[in-house]
């Protein structure tokens, strides 16, 4: 099911060591980022009594192929392994515990929630539920006691990451279904509807345009094109989206295109990715657009909303530039190299 597959980590968790409970919920905390930095390929699988252990690599998604002036659907997606050397991604998912059925009592799995967690989980601070008649029989252990005994007998490195959420079952079929459901909550096998629903609006608009093969159109039909106004909208502030460590480390540079609706007040509204670059850089570009100031378009003497295309060029800063200069080597002619890493942008004509 898992080895060799190209998956996405739902939630965009950026840590390379992650633990999830049996319901597929993250145990603890992790920074979250773009889905373009959340590609996962599983290389090793180990199934123990209490958890599933996965080991693999993290991939950054780099969009390639189309120029900003071409159909954005022509852009291909490249995958770049961004896993640090000798530090693979390690993910664990807790499993439901198998227990022996109680004598004379038909088994019924109780849905896990905060109210009944204390009755089935060792170490939970909630109050224990009243003992069942079968559990009160001499020599028979309750579900909670069986769970506690099993976890205590397991090696520390194989115990559940969140014992407080573990439930019990006597059905291997139910335990397997719980694990498969948890896997589905942790990973996405491609850009599915649920992964897309979790994306920011500007990515949703990109994939909607890609699916329709018609390009992006503003949600508000009153938004005009730049060639329909008497005076075009224009950017009036410095606009420099930040780069990030992944892009700098793996040489991700290029040009990206974004569509922004500039309101009659000069403020950016709806934004759509037109031609992405990936590697988390599109998120930085959209953030910079939202902070930028614009002069609104004018038609018939009145400011009007208009669709503005913004082309952003991302490039790589190299320490070799200053080192070569100090060594007396001739620097290439052209624009001055920026003093700090990061992209610059120009407005689309």
Using the CA coordinates, give the radius of gyration.
27 Å
> What pattern of helices and strands is seen along the backbone?
EEEEEEEHHEHEHHEEHEEHEEEEHE
Give the tally of β-strands.
18
Enumerate the spans where pLDDT stays under 50 for 5 or more consecutive residues.
103-108, 110-138, 320-349
**What class, by secondary structure content?**
alpha+beta
Helical fraction equals 10-25%
Shape: elongated
Helical stretch tally = 8
**What count of domains describes the coordinates?**
2
Q: In a nutshell, what does this entry contain?
A:
Helices cover 20% and strands 26% of the residues. It is an alpha+beta fold and 349 residues long.
Report on this structure.
- By secondary structure, the chain is α+β, with helices and mostly antiparallel strands.
- The chain has two domains: 1-199, no CATH class; 201-347, TolA/TonB C-terminal domain (2-Layer Sandwich), CATH 3.30.2420.
- Helices cover 20% and strands 26% of the residues.
- It contains eight helices and 18 strands.
- The strands form five sheets. Strands 1, 2, 3, 4, 5, 6 and 9 form a seven-stranded mixed beta sheet that branches.
- Strand 12 (254-262) and strand 13 (268-275) form a beta hairpin.
């Amino acid at each position: 099911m898992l080895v060799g597959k190209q998956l996405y980590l739902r939630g965009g968790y950026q840590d390379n060591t992650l633990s999830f409970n049996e319901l597929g919920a993250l145990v603890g905390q992790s920074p979250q980022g773009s889905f373009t930095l959340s590609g996962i390929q599983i290389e090793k699988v180990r199934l123990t009594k209490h958890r599933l252990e996965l080991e693999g690599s993290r991939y950054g998604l780099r969009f390639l192929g189309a120029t900003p002036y071409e159909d954005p659907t022509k852009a291909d997606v490249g995958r770049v392994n961004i896993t640090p050397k000798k530090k693979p991604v390690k993910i664990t998912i807790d499993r439901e515990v198998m227990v022996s059925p109680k004598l004379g009592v038909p088994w019924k799995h109780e849905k896990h929630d905060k109210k009944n967690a204390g009755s089935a989980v060792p170490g939970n601070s909630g109050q224990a539920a009243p003992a069942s008649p079968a559990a009160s029989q001499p020599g028979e252990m309750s579900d909670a006691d069986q769970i506690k005994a099993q976890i205590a007998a397991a090696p520390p490195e194989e115990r559940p990451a969140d014992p407080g959420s573990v439930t019990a079952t006597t059905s291997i079929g139910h335990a397997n279904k719980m694990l498969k459901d948890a896997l589905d909550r942790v990973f996405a096998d491609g850009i599915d509807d649920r992964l897309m629903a979790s994306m920011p609006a500007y990515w949703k608009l990109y994939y909607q345009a890609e699916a329709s093969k018609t390009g992006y159109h503003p949600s508000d039909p009153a938004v005009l094109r730049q060639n329909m106004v008497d005076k075009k909208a224009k950017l009036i502030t410095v606009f420099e989206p930040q780069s990030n460590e992944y892009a700098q480390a793996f040489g991700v540079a290029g040009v990206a295109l974004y569509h922004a609706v500039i309101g009659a007040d000069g403020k950016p509204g709806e934004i759509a990715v037109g031609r992405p670059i990936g590697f988390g850089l599109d998120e930085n570009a959209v953030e910079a657009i939202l902070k930028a100031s614009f002069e609104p378009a004018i038609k018939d003497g009145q400011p009007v909303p208009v669709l503005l295309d913004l082309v952003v060029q991302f490039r790589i800063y190299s320490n070799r530039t200053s080192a070569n200069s100090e060594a007396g080597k001739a620097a290439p002619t052209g624009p001055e190299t920026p003093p700090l890493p990061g992209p610059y942008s120009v407005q689309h004509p």
